[in-house]
Amino acid sequence: MGSSARWTWVSWLKIVVFLLLCAPAVAMVVAVVSGRAGPNPIEFLTHETGEMGLRMLMLGLMLTPMRWWFKSTVPIRFRRMIGLFAFFYVIMHFAIYTVLDQQLDIASITEDLFKRTYIIAGFVSLVLLVPLAITSTKAMMRRLGKRWLSLHKLVYVASIAAVLHYIWLAKGDQIEPLVYAAILAVLLGMRLWRKFRRG
Ligand code: HEM
């Protein structure tokens, strides 16, 4: 925000949202340090960060439909922050898996990557999110112009890959990943419906 920008209620709301989205990370650290994370803190952290990454992606995809409903651009002003939080939680998730779980054993990670379909899906999602995070700045938006919008449509593919990752890794009780799949289907379906209705 430039120095000439006005300090509005949206600016305050941004601070509140920022703190709210940091809270799960703090809660995770507190749970691990206090021993409340259970017998396997690495597993706990992998699950919590993965879940938060997915939630942030879904939340980010809710902003455009909110703009249509409320006929206001205010939700869009939270898009970058929420997108970057999704990236933050996903990077933490990846780091916990590679550093803490696999102890940077490249051979074992590569084996996992080729052997487990759910790891491939997670990897695809992560790789697609990288260019989106890199091009999230205002300068990049300006530089890329219309291409920025096209590039950021990759978030749809990244979200589908993330949901597939969750569906494929879940053993037994499949309800939660399917709930995410349903939410994503609605969020993407709304976009398709609007596109075709408008022609
Ligand atoms: C290279 C990238 C990734 C790797 C290596 C990876 C690895 C893992 C592993 C090992 C688990 C635990 C599996 C188990 O319990 O058996 C997991 C769970 C999960 N991951 Fe990933 N992941 C990746 C990317 C992602 C991305 C991009 C997202 C979402 C945006 C994501 C969301 C999740 C979710 C939601 C869970 C399940 C959490 C739960 O059980 O509550 N992952 N991931």
Short synopsis of the structure:
With 199 residues, this protein is mostly helical. The protein has one domain (49-198). It has nine helices and no strands.
Categorize the overall geometry: globular
Strand-and-helix sequence, N→C? HHHHHHHHH
Ligand types: protoporphyrin IX containing FE
Share in β-strands: under 5%
Distance, first to last CA: 37 Å
What's the oligomerization state?
single chain
Number of strands: 0
- Rg, rounded, reads 18 Å
What's the total helix number? Answer: 9
Q: Which stretches are low in confidence, meaning pLDDT under 50 for 5 or more residues running?
A: none
Largest sheet descriptor: none
Helical/strand content category = mainly alpha
Helix content: over 70%
Q: What do the pLDDT scores average to?
A: 95
**Overall domain count:** 1
